[in-house]
Amino acid sequence: MNTTPNERQQMVDALRGFALLGILVVNIASFASTYYGLGVPDPMALSLADRCASFVRAFVFETKFYLLFSFLFGYSFTLQMRSAERDGKAFVPRMVRRHVGLWVIGVVHAVLLYYGDILTTYAVLGAVLLMLRRRGDVFLACVGIALVLLTSLLWAAVGQMYTHMDMLMATQAAYAEAAAALAAYRATPAMVVVQHLRDLSQTWWITGLVQAPEALAMFFAGFIAGKRGLLAHVEAHRTLLWRMFWWGLAVGLPGALAYAWPTLRLNDPVRDIQGLAVTLLTAPFLAAAYAAGMLLVFQSGRGGRVLVQLLAPAGRMALSNYLLQSLVCAWIFLAYGLRWIGTVGPLATFAVAFAIFAGNLALSRWWMQRFAYGPAEWLLRAFTNLQRPPLRRRRHADQRDSSAEN
Length: 406
Hints:
Layout lengths: L4 H28 L15 H14 L3 H23 L3 H22 L6 H14 L4 H25 L2 H24 L1 H39 L10 H23 L1 H4 L3 H30 L3 H15 L1 H16 L12 H23 L6 H11 L21
Helix pairs in contact: 1-3, 1-11, 1-12, 1-13, 1-14, 2-9, 2-14, 3-8, 4-5, 4-15, 5-8, 6-8, 6-11, 7-8, 9-11, 12-14, 13-14
């Protein structure tokens, strides 16, 4: 299958749109329940159907899709480099402003809407990539592998140190913490902000010891792929994609099973930590399988092209959609609106997530037919370049750089 440069870029946008779905499925669980991630049974998730939904979420979605998004962030870094070179502008000041802008957006997002924000982490890790961009591919690959290995070993050691008494004390504290958070999130908008600040003060170290090292490793992988033009010539790498797909499944699925299995056994924090250690090691392989599989599907004929056209607009305004997803979830579940938190189980949460994502797709298609950038992308681009870009789509305008804004 021969593809044009525009079609190849649409595949990358579509892959980013696909990643948005997985991120939403995971993030909405935090909005729907204060018990999520605490290692204790959720009162709304005790039925067989809801436990199966929790298992599917953990097995298929958790710890994988933010890695896919991180890979695409690293890939977009190379697009930014080429864009700055093409425009004849200094790259470093431009990227520093971009990461500062992303960090500010992330702070506002974390305080007002979702304490599990990833944008601030991306802004900091992006600065690390900026400093290391001139290092060789072998160096970056070795550092990425080391980050994954050390993070997995760290949590394996934590799991070994966990005693039965520690588990009992942690369980009691988790129930009290979940009850207090539930009351705050149902109270008033001001209390929502206060609880977000409290949650941020308690979870920042988890981000630093779980998400950040793995995300940085995927930044490096995406950066290397961008430098080598892997996604710019997708059709030339079908053999490689098939190998990534099958090897990714072979290594990643057992780790995903080890991570998801405790959701069926309920209230076993030790197994939770052990499963986390395993999936931290294997999730990058499964994320690679997801990426390779979707790129192969996108090239599979008419059905693949339809899927690309459906997902690509959402991927082109991924930052706006990420923020919009949090805004809608905050209105549905928190004191900003309906206060559904603690009233629906995982199965119903899945339905809500897919309904929101369907809205993302429809709105993104409508928006991108009329405008050159998503609203958040436009704002970030204006701050990055210190000039106001045209928002309205211009006929025959070249949109090659749109994905670089995500």
